Amino acid sequence: HPAMDSPSPWRTLLASLIILMALVSPTAAPPPTPGEQAGALLAWRATLGGQSQRALRSWGNTSTLCSWRGVRCGARRRPVITGVHLRGVRLAGTLGSLDFAALRALTSLDLWRNRLAGSIPPSIAALGELHALLLQGNQISGSIPPSLANLTRLHLLMLHDNQISGEIAGQIGELGNLVSLDLSGNQLVGSIPCEIGHLNHLVRLDLSDNKLSGPVSFCPANNSTVNLENLNRLSLSRNNLAGPISKDIVNLSSLQHLDISQNNFSGLIPGGVGGLNKLTFLHLSDNQLSGPIPPEIGNLQRLKQLNLSANHLEGYIPTSLGNLTQLTALNLSTNELIGPIPKEIRNLVNLESLGLGQNKLTASIPNSLGNLTKLTTLDLHDNQLSGNIPRELGYLVNLEELNIYNNTLSGSIPSSLGNLTKLTTLYLCYNQLSGSIPQEIGNLRNLVWLTLSSNKLSGPLPSGLCSGGRLQNFTAYNNMLVGPLPTSLLRCTSLVRFRLERNQLQGDISEMGTQILST
Ligand SMILES: *[C@@H]1O[C@H](CO)[C@@H](O)[C@H](O)[C@H]1NC(C)=O
Ligand SMILES: *[C@@H]1O[C@H](CO)[C@@H](O)[C@H](O)[C@H]1NC(C)=O
Ligand SMILES: *[C@@H]1O[C@H](CO)[C@@H](O)[C@H](O)[C@H]1NC(C)=O
Ligand SMILES: *[C@@H]1O[C@H](CO)[C@@H](O)[C@H](O)[C@H]1NC(C)=O
Ligand SMILES: *[C@@H]1O[C@H](CO)[C@@H](O)[C@H](O)[C@H]1NC(C)=O
Ligand SMILES: *[C@@H]1O[C@H](CO)[C@@H](O)[C@H](O)[C@H]1NC(C)=O
Ligand SMILES: *[C@@H]1O[C@H](CO)[C@@H](O)[C@H](O)[C@H]1NC(C)=O
Ligand SMILES: *[C@@H]1O[C@H](CO)[C@@H](O)[C@H](O)[C@H]1NC(C)=O
Ligand SMILES: *[C@@H]1O[C@H](CO)[C@@H](O)[C@H](O)[C@H]1NC(C)=O
Ligand SMILES: *[C@@H]1O[C@H](CO)[C@@H](O)[C@H](O)[C@H]1NC(C)=O
Ligand SMILES: *[C@@H]1O[C@H](CO)[C@@H](O)[C@H](O)[C@H]1NC(C)=O
Ligand SMILES: *[C@@H]1O[C@H](CO)[C@@H](O)[C@H](O)[C@H]1NC(C)=O
After folding, report:
1. Nearest C-alpha to atom 1 of ligand 4 is from which residue?
2. How far is the CA of 318 from the centre of ligand 8 (A)?
3. Chain mean pLDDT for the chain
4. Quick one: which of 263, 255, 264, 262 has its CA closest to 282?
5. Sheet with 213-214, side-by-side order of all strands
6. Mutational pocket test of ligand 5: of 228, 250, 251, the residue with most ligand atoms within 8 Å of the beta carbon
7. What is the pTM of this model?
8. Which of 99, 318, 352, 516 is 20 to 30 A from 460, alpha carbon to alpha carbon?
């Protein structure tokens, strides 16, 4: 899972857990003998594939048990194994033949990123001291054994990126010490058990990329009114979850990261979301949400990413979004929003990506967008925007993608767009743009995709077109262009698609075709 590899909160969490694990001294049953433990590990190794035998060739001499590869012992007179850490060493086999009872003093078992298959044996419940179980990135299948609920000391349970199926049983609520639970990237079905709400130490919960369905609610543990009060990261994306965004979610007051995108949630976005004032990341995209965008979202002053795209949201874009000055990405595209682009958007000076395409927005493009100089992507396509293309867009020197096709924009193409030297994508088609195409457009040497078709453009094509040698798709059909084809275009070997019909252009297009075929 890419999210696991880098972020520092993860490291901090791990570090504090290690300290915690060091402080909590295991009590319980008599510790296993060295022979018992060595026997269990050697018997397991014997069942693993050949490559694994090589990786574990240091295993053998019982009197040096604590220096076997991946084996860690606690500080005791007799060697007692407290950790088995074999991350990414290509172990192939199953856990079925591992005698967990003989390793009952284990506090951490880390077999991350191997080639383990088969299911998690119910006998894993014997690891009563276990704080961390990391089995992610294997090919483990079968369902989560109910007996896992006996591992009540678990802080970390990482089973993501496997092929685990079946339902998540309500007993998971008995793992009351869990800090991080990641079951993402499996094939889990059924609903999310409300008992997850009992896990009051949980900081991070990731159930994304499964086949979970039904509504989401979290029930509080006995004698508690609050759910998941420490949860700061909740990812449920890419499932088939449905129903409203419940008050149980809106009440998760510590949330910093909330991603429920690509599900089937419906109903309104509750105004109470505006109370989650620690949020930096809010993705509700690709659901069936309807109604207006609640203005209270403007209270989320720490937001860096807001994605509400691909829903059925309607009404005006609230001006309060102009308060979200930390935003780097704002995506409201593919909804039914109406009215103008609010001028307050100009306050979002940290924006790198602005997506408002496929709505019903009207009026003109605000000149003040020219102040958002960090923008790399500006997408306003498929709206009803009118008026001129503001020449101020020429200040957006970091822009790589400018997509304003299928509006009712008129006037000429501002020559200032020639300043946008990083542009790879310039979609201006399906508008009412007139006048000649500025020569400066020919200077955009990084252009790969250029569409000018279905406008009222006249005059010649700019002479430098394709001078950067990157142009792949170029359309200018259905205009009133005249004159010869520029030689730079005739020599354009990168082209895979061009359409210039319905103009009065002259030149040997067949020669161009030959060039294309010959590459
Ligand atoms: C096992 O390790 C001990 C301690 O290092 C050593 O004395 C002994 O010879 C080793 N036994 C074998 C069979 O290698
Ligand atoms: C799990 O715990 C329950 C109740 O504490 C106990 O009855 C059961 O035997 C345990 N299961 C395993 C596999 O240890
Ligand atoms: C919660 O309370 C119910 C009934 O009072 C009881 O059966 C259950 O065991 C309790 N659960 C916990 C985790 O204390
Ligand atoms: C709540 O706690 C009180 C005392 O701590 C106890 O008497 C009561 O039974 C508990 N209620 C539930 C539902 O567990
Ligand atoms: C929301 O949390 C507050 C405390 O933070 C609590 O008083 C309230 O009952 C909770 N509401 C719901 C619906 O869970
Ligand atoms: C999504 O929910 C709607 C009702 O809100 C339902 O009609 C539709 O079948 C659901 N889609 C899927 C893929 O479950
Ligand atoms: C926003 O959500 C849409 C739909 O799920 C997705 O295609 C897009 O990549 C997301 N945008 C950002 C900036 O995350
Ligand atoms: C947020 O925006 C609204 C509308 O633009 C404004 O009235 C309000 O004062 C702003 N709030 C803050 C905290 O800046
Ligand atoms: C851009 O910002 C500057 C300084 O904040 C301001 O003076 C100027 O009017 C803004 N330009 C536009 C087009 O909004
Ligand atoms: C332009 O947008 C309208 C809706 O606003 C849509 O019906 C039409 O198919 C779009 N045309 C093109 C060429 O994308
Ligand atoms: C941007 O383009 C305009 C018109 O082509 C030109 O006058 C201006 O100097 C350019 N600005 C920058 C910063 O390159
Ligand atoms: C470019 O043209 C090719 C060939 O017609 C087409 O398959 C592709 O979708 C186009 N790409 C873009 C980004 O327009």
Report:
1. 223
2. 10
3. 91
4. 255
5. 213-214, 240-243, 264-268, 288-291, 312-316, 336-339, 360-361
6. 251
7. 0.89
8. 516
